[in-house]
Specification:
mainly alpha, globular
Length: 82
């Protein structure tokens, strides 16, 4: 089993999420910095920024997952409406 570093997992979450401007506004990190990080241009981004970004992305994903559990997925809602 391969484990990812905090940096690798954070970059993966950022790439999956996209919409870097929204992330920049929510975290205070620069849009250009986020884009460069996702592209692999920044090789030593600093642990404080990565921890902040990872926390934001994790909490956002947890919130979305909780809402899906609470209200059901789109496909479940459309089944009920049919």
């Amino acid at each position: 089993m391969e484990t990812q570093s905090l940096l690798e997992s954070t970059i993966g979450r950022l790439r999956d999420r996209g919409r870097y401007r929204e992330v920049a506004e929510a975290t205070g990190l620069g849009y250009e910095w986020l884009a460069k990080l996702a592209q692999g241009v920044i090789h030593d981004p600093g642990v404080n920024k990565i921890e902040l970004l990872n926390r934001f992305l994790r909490e956002e994903a947890d919130l979305k997952a909780g809402l899906r559990r609470k209200y059901g997925s789109d496909s479940e809602q459309s089944k009920g409406a049919a």
